Amino acid sequence: MITISRTFTAAAAPDPVLAYLRDLANADEWDPAARRTVRTGAGPLAVGATWHKESRILGVTTELTYTLVAADAETLVFAGRNEGATSTEALRVRPAAGGSEVSFHVELELHGLAKLATPILRAEFEKLGTRTAARLAAVLGRLAPA
């Protein structure tokens, strides 16, 4: 299993940050690996909402179906799956001086032959986690009032 965690501060308050993160389609703006993320259902952005996300990592394109599986006043949890991988992505947003403290924790389990790539992908996901935190902090900063 590959596990990545990052914590950073963002200039925006928790409520607009959580509202923005609740729609996984916004990942196209902040996830360097995301190529296209599309909402696949209708209705409110609540537990049970789904998205189809296409990502590209180390030149390989993969597609996962994500579901918002948990949401409360400070945490969102998305579960993604395809036949080669299962991903759980938890985002926690708390008040901090001048904005929010944002933490994300990703657990990626590869299945079948893809599991052989775990050591190679672990290093790439560490780099990707750092790039994602930097990009997400910048994007969330735009949500702060001027």
Automatic annotation (TrEMBL):
It comes from the Bacteria. Pfam families: Polyketide_cyc2. This is Polyketide cyclase/dehydrase/lipid transport protein.
